[in-house]
Design brief:
Blueprint: E1 2-4, E2 11-13, H1 24-30, H2 32-38, H3 40-43, E3 53-58, E4 72-77, H4 92-102, E5 104-106, E6 112-115, E7 122-127, H5 137-142, H6 149-159, E8 164-167, H7 176-187, E9 191-195, E10 222-227, E11 245-248, E12 252-256, E13 260-264, H8 267-284, H9 290-299, H10 320-330, H11 363-405, E14 432-433, E15 436-437, H12 439-445
Parallel strand pairs: 3-7, 3-8, 4-7, 8-9, 9-10, 10-11
Antiparallel strand pairs: 1-2, 5-6, 12-13, 14-15
Helix pairs in contact: 4-8, 6-7, 8-10, 9-10
Length: 463
């Protein structure tokens, strides 16, 4: 597992946590738990990774190890010039990862030594890091000319025909060149697998997650966490939303340079195992797009977390035969855009991003203006209520005046009645009250009753 060590983008080796070298005849027995967890014997009945090339972007691979001999293609060294002339690379970490992916063992029937997940796959060794014991380590970490070695290594691996790229490396910061290289690889149908990082044992950041690691956190890359022997998240494994799947990452046996064997722990080892499963899928379904390979890995996972996903274990522990079964189910589909309208992966998406303008909020003014707005709202409501009450009163007064002015009734005197006069001088009104004919008088007399009230000036005489 690797981490960003300097501003120039160089990488530094993390200790493998390795024990003394093991004997070859002990290794296969020590691998049993990992082989059983991934259910590899069942997967090997379907695919062993034949005709697939897995590029190992790492510290270099020893092509002469007896468990890898004949399976390694030595590619370009992008660290040339960092070590002093004549110093050979150590190639420990890279050989270790390559053996977990494509080790084929040795001896009768290949029964001794390391057996990888895809024992018939080829390994393309691309050196993009130095190990911290190498004399050029400091130069590599600080020289600007080594800043984009990972991006250049990805493009080189794609152009050399890699089907899967294993990146058991991580760094804290992403670069534009790396992002573009990953788009380039995905557009060519190459599956990218990278380590989620080993900083998970520390105190989580304010977000509650461990730091993101690159290239694992780039969209389209299969980010791998490490599981312990109980298939729970290993204490050191990063937990963040980039994590897609997990694989065993504790007490993992592998090969080292010079026919040695090592045991170690880290998300590096888990990543190599997942790259091997991706190689099994690509061998069986060579045209399957990277997105669908990732879907097969997640849908076929075992030991799923509660709820189906969490940031420590992703969608669960990779299971090789279940991933192959899911790949068979979706193999006729495609998620790759083609034609003149498809996007060129070598170019950024959309327009260039403009600088973000940061606005300082004045909380005092916000409170003041908010209070004014609330007060104005209450004032408007109060004004509407006053208007409504005034209109209601005006309508009530108008209705009373209308009722007293002219109410039609049988025997009503036509013309305005002088309401100031109460009737004859003696105050009596014969057969009516205030000019309204007493209907009972008409009923009893058989005709209209007479009204004895005064008529207003100019009014016609009553009949």
């Amino acid at each position: 597992m690797l981490r960003r060590a300097g501003a120039a983008g160089a990488l530094a080796m993390i200790a493998l946590g390795a024990a003394p070298a093991a004997h070859a005849d002990d290794v296969r027995g020590s691998q049993r738990q990992v082989l059983r967890t991934l259910d590899l014997p069942g997967a090997w009945r379907i695919s062993k990774g034949g005709d697939v090339t897995v590029a190992v972007l790492d510290s270099g691979v020893d092509p002469h190890h007896r468990d890898l001999v004949g399976s390694v293609i030595e590619g370009k060294d992008f660290t040339t010039g960092a070590n002093p002339p004549g110093v050979a690379p150590l190639r420990l970490h890279g050989t270790y990862m390559a053996s977990l992916i494509a080790g084929h063992g040795h001896g009768p029937g290949g029964a001794d030594g390391v057996i990888g997940v895809a024992p018939r796959a080829r390994v393309l060794s691309v050196r993009v890091i130095l190990e911290d014991e190498e004399p050029g380590f400091r130069e590599f970490n600080t020289a600007e000319r080594f800043e984009d070695v990972v991006a250049r290594g990805i493009r080189y691996a794609v152009d050399q025909g890699a089907d899967v790229i294993n990146m058991s490396i991580s760094k804290e910061l992403a670069t534009r060149e790396e992002r573009a290289a990953i788009r380039y690889a995905i557009s060519r149908g190459v599956v990218l697998v990278a380590a989620a990082g080993n900083e998970g044992a520390g105190k989580p950041e304010s977000t509650g997650y461990a730091p993101y690691s690159y290239p694992a956190a780039f969209p389209g890359v299969v980010s791998v966490a490490a599981a312990d022997r109980g298939l729970r998240r290993a204490s050191f494994s990063n937990r963040n939303p980039s994590v897609l799947v997990a694989a065993p990452g504790v007490d993992i046996f592998g090969a080292g340079p010079g026919d040695e064997y090592w045991v170690g722990r880290g998300t590096s080892q888990a990543t190599a195992l997942v790259s091997g499963v991706a190689a099994l899928i690509k061998a069986k379904y060579p045209e399957m797009s990277p997105a669908l390979v990732a879907q097969a890995l997640t849908a076929g996972a075992s030991r799923r977390p509660t709820g189906g996903y969490d940031t420590g274990m992703g969608f669960g522990v990779v299971n090789a035969p279940r991933a192959l079964a899911e790949a068979a189910r979706i193999s006729r589909h495609t998620l790759t855009a083609t034609g003149p309208g498809s996007h060129d992966p070598a170019r950024p998406m959309g327009r260039g991003v403009e600088p973000v303008q940061v606005i300082q909020r004045d909380q005092h003014k916000i409170t003041l203006y908010g209070g004014v707005a609330v007060a104005a709202g209450f004032g408007a409501v109060a004004s509407l209520m006053v208007i409504a009450v005034s209109v209601g009163r005006a309508r009530s007064s108008a209705g009373s005046a209308e009722d007293s002015a002219d109410v039609p009734a049988s025997g009503l005197v036509h013309g305005p009645v002088d309401g100031s006069a109460a009737g004859p001088a003696d105050g009596s009104v014969e057969g009516s009250v205030n000019g309204i004919t007493d209907g009972s008088a008409e009923d009893s007399a058989g005709g209209p009753a007479e009204t004895a009230g005064h008529l207003g000036p100019g009014s016609p005489a009553a009949p």
